[in-house]
Every structure is written in structure tokens, then in C-alpha cells.
Write a structure and sequence with these properties.
alpha/beta; two-stranded antiparallel sheet; about 40% helix; globular
Length: about 180
């Protein structure tokens, strides 16, 4: 709900942003695929798709998330030439090596310019996320963030902390 609310209240409907959203646990699924936010209806559809996603439980397969997002971005029309990925997780990856490989492929094949992170709760591994996932490094963890020159990391305690953080992050990204 935090992401949906932030999109509904902070993303302009002037066609400046195209949004894709992937949800992941043991597997990954596409929730939003290349929606150009050029109308209130488009923005509402993005928010509604996010709200409709249900908790599936399972493991934390970072590689599945990065691989799916990479395939989405490679197939998209990046007319601005910029691709920003926000990664939110409440756990450690099934395999650090697979996560790093998939992250590197996402950056190189999909042309990702910035990968920033919210680590939610005590189970997230800030050190791994900041040193191995965040891009470009070094990862910035102090507001105001040096976006887009550096990826940034925000540690949050819970769902409400995430809602606050993602709202602030969207403000940073959209200027």
C-alpha cells in the first residue's frame, strides 16, 4: 500500500514516467509492465495492480526478481535513456552468488543507471545489500542522497517505515 499511495500522490501524469513492478518471493511475477503514466487512469491502474498483489510467503529469491526485471527492461522503450530500479526486501537472498550474477546482468543487459534499496526489518542484510546490490557504488545511506550518481540504501523497521521511505525515495527520484 505504501508504494501504491506514493505513486498515486507523487508521480505526475504528464508521461514523464514509465513504471514496471515485479513482486518476488520463491518466484517472481510481473505486476505492472511498462505503463506510461500519462493519465490519471494509468496512474490509478498501476497503484491498483500493486495493491492487488498478495503475500505469497516463501523464500527470498533476489535472482528471480532481478532476472524478471531485466527481461522487462530489455523489452521496453526507454525513450529517456534512463532506467532506475528500486529494490525492497525483508530477507536475505537464497543464494548470494546467484543474486550478484543476476544483479550484474540486470545492470549490463538492461542498462540500469541506478539500483537503490529499502532493507525492511531485522532479516535484511544491510552490508550485503549496500556492498553487492546497490548501484552505482559506493552505496549512499545518508540523506540527502546523491541520486542518481550513487545508489542508495534505506533501512526501515517495518511496513510503515517502508511506506514513509518509498514516499521520500520517489520524491528524490522525481526531483
Amino acid at each position: 500500500n505504501g508504494l501504491a499511495n506514493a505513486i498515486n500522490s507523487l508521480i505526475s501524469i504528464d508521461g514523464s514516467y514509465e513504471i514496471s513492478v515485479v513482486s518476488f518471493s520463491t518466484t517472481a511475477q510481473t505486476l505492472v509492465n511498462h505503463v506510461l503514466v500519462n493519465s490519471l487512469a494509468a496512474r490509478t491502474a498501476v497503484a491498483n495492480a500493486i495493491i492487488a498483489d498478495s503475500y505469497t510467503g516463501g523464500s527470498t529469491d533476489y535472482a528471480a526478481a532481478f532476472n524478471l526485471m531485466g527481461s522487462i527492461l530489455v523489452g521496453g522503450d526507454q525513450t529517456s535513456g534512463l532506467a532506475y530500479v528500486n529494490f525492497a526486501t525483508d530477507g536475505v537472498p537464497n543464494s548470494q552468488a546467484a543474486a550478484i550474477t543476476a544483479r550484474n546482468n540486470l545492470i549490463s543487459s538492461a542498462g540500469v543507471d541506478n539500483l537503490s534499496i529499502e532493507g525492511i526489518g531485522a532479516s535484511a542484510d544491510p552490508s550485503f545489500l549496500q556492498t553487492s546490490i546497490c548501484y552505482p557504488g559506493p552505496c549512499d545511506s545518508t540523506a540527502p542522497y546523491n541520486f542518481p550518481t550513487q545508489g542508495f540504501y534505506i533501512a526501515v523497521a517495518d511496513a510503515q517505515g517502508y511506506a514513509d521511505a518509498i514516499g521520500n525515495k520517489i520524491k528524490v527520484v522525481t526531483g
